[in-house]
TrEMBL record:
Keywords: Oxidoreductase. It comes from the Eukaryota. It comes from Cytospora chrysosperma (Cytospora canker fungus). GO terms for molecular function: oxidoreductase activity. Residues 56-330 form the TauD/TfdA-like domain. This is TauD/TfdA-like domain-containing protein. It holds the Pfam family DUF6540. The keyword Protease does not apply. Gene3D superfamilies: Clavaminate synthase-like (3.60.130.10).
Length: 511
């Protein structure tokens, strides 16, 4: 069956029927579409076809018929900008994030990374911003690159979750319906490596500026918080708790069916995973993960929480990504989703090693970038190649010899695979003290010698007490040095080094 002579239905393994979870006519969940008749649309043709489906009302009809989830395959999406162009063709109003538990980076207009927590940390079934009164009307995902293993996106019907819960635990559903759910998010000051790793300033510091005093900072943050909650508390350690009480059992407007919209299952899964189910609810990652409560503040029975999570995970349909895929979810149909482990990694050929671009993030200043080279002989050890200093006094070269990877700590950096380099460039190695860090400026191999050939940035910030500035000086820092080093490495190493992707430096967070 063709849609506006542009797209046709197709089936994939794991699809289910909406009749399995709702008293509705037979229809696939999710709906899967691809260009009809072997059509290979250009980007502009894709934009035009999507816009026609959206403006005609066909998109809404298909979404309702198929449980609120649509997979579109075969689109020419290769870059974040391609995705942005096609996503805007739907004509949706952009969602503004207020309070932001996960760390995300803007990569194109209204396009962000989904979650920059470590790939080994699970993300449990949830509705986007289901814990807040401000949430998106639609949400979409796309796959720019596909991992070799894992990385599927499971989607779950909120209609089906409530239906099964009503059958197995009607009292629980009644309690949720009457009381709602209370979520408490505690935001620290420092970065935390977590799937909900945002701190106060990532979540609510959009208007904080360098030089703001503490009173001004708190005033600006509280103003943002009040946009979706008037219940918050500052703690002695500078952290901030924000409380949200929202309904989770809701009525579907079109079908008059009971459905689910919230983050109860993800909040409980995260709390259990990090061992934070009891006060003070601080997990093994150093972050706070209090379990959800009934809206009146009473404790939700753990066996009910376990049941809801088990039902959600057992009902999921796995979407295995292909490059250019786009998934569209309609929260009105209360489709939950989760993310499974699967980071795009370019596996090294024999005789090559992976090296990593790491970024310590900062809410006010430029984040610190460095290259981490894992040891070939001492598992878990490695060398940090970077420059240290500041734009006023200048920078200096440093090699940090680590007894364990930098991301093993609770305040570790974001990391991206920079590329693969031939073993001969990173041998021999420096000695690594167990569980300690040493710092030196002595190169032990070709890559380290090459790093010293790239000058460390000189001072580039005018002194406030110096003479009046003339021509504006462009500030250089560790980020510009890393970019210069990578360019120099590509030039000198030739086939001995390959970037994981051409735009990898553009994807690294600058703050």
């Amino acid at each position: 069956m063709a849609i506006h002579n542009s797209f046709e239905h197709f089936a994939f393994e794991g699809q289910t029927d909406v009749q399995t979870f709702a008293p509705l006519p037979n229809a696939a969940f999710p709906l899967a579409l691809r260009p009809a008749d072997d059509w290979k649309p250009t980007l502009q043709e894709s934009v035009d076809a999507i816009r026609q489906i959206a403006t005609s009302g066909e998109l809404k009809r298909l979404s309702q018929q198929h449980g609120g989830a649509i997979l579109i395959r075969g689109l020419p999406i290769r870059t974040p900008q391609d995705y942005s162009d096609i996503a805007h063709a739907f004509g949706f109003v952009a969602h503004e994030e207020v309070g932001r538990p996960p760390i995300r980076t803007v990569v194109a207009k209204n396009v962000k990374t989904a979650n920059e927590g470590p790939p080994e940390l699970p993300i449990w079934p949830h509705n986007e911003y289901g814990w807040s009164k401000i949430h998106p009307a639609w949400i979409s995902f796309s796959a720019l690159e596909v991992p070799e293993h894992g990385g599927e996106t499971p989607i779950i019907s909120g209609l089906g979750l409530v239906k099964t819960l009503q059958e197995k635990a009607p009292l629980f559903v009644e309690n949720l319906q009457q009381r709602g759910v209370k979520y408490v998010y505690r935001y620290g000051v420092t970065k935390v490596v977590s799937s909900t790793g945002a701190n106060i300033f990532d979540a609510y510091g959009q208007h904080v500026k360098p030089g703001d005093d503490e009173m001004t900072i708190r005033k600006k943050i509280e103003q943002e918080v009040r946009r979706h909650s008037h219940k918050f508390e500052w703690h002695e350690d500078g952290s901030l708790s924000v409380t949200h009480v929202v309904p989770i059992i809701r009525k579907h407007e079109d079908f008059a069916l009971t459905t689910w919209f919230g983050n109860l299952t993800s909040a409980w899964g995260r709390s259990k995973h990090h061992g934070a189910t009891r006060p003070p609810y601080r997990g093994d990652d150093g972050s706070y993960h209090p379990p959800p409560l009934y809206g009146d503040g009473t404790i939700i029975e753990s066996h009910y929480l376990d049941l809801a999570l088990a039902i959600a995970e057992s009902a999921q349909v796995l979407v295995k990504w292909e490059q250019g895929d786009m998934v569209l979810l309609d929260p009105e149909n209360a489709v939950l989703y989760t993310l499974l482990e699967g980071k795009v990694i370019k596996e090294p050929a024999a005789g090559y090693r992976q090296i990593w671009l790491c970024c310590y993030r900062s809410y006010l200043f430029a984040g610190h970038w460095f290259i981490f080279v894992p040891s070939q002989s001492n598992d878990g050890c490695g060398t940090v190649i970077n420059v240290r200093g500041n734009t006023k006094e200048g920078f200096r070269h440093e090699f940090e010899r680590l007894g364990r990877p930098p991301w093993s700590s609770t305040a570790g950096p974001a990391r991206l695979q920079l590329g693969n380099i031939k073993d001969s460039w990173i041998a021999p190695e420096a000695p690594y003290p167990p569980d300690e860090t040493t710092v030196d400026t002595t190169p032990f191999n070709g890559l380290e010698m090459l790093a010293l050939e790239v000058p460390a940035p000189a001072p580039s910030l005018n002194s406030a007490q110096g003479p009046a500035p003339g021509k504006r000086v462009q500030q250089v820092n560790c980020q510009s040095w890393i970019k210069s080093l990578v360019s120099y490495l590509i030039e000198k190493a030739g086939d001995d080094f390959e970037l994981s992707r051409p735009d990898i430096l553009d994807l690294a967070p600058e703050q």
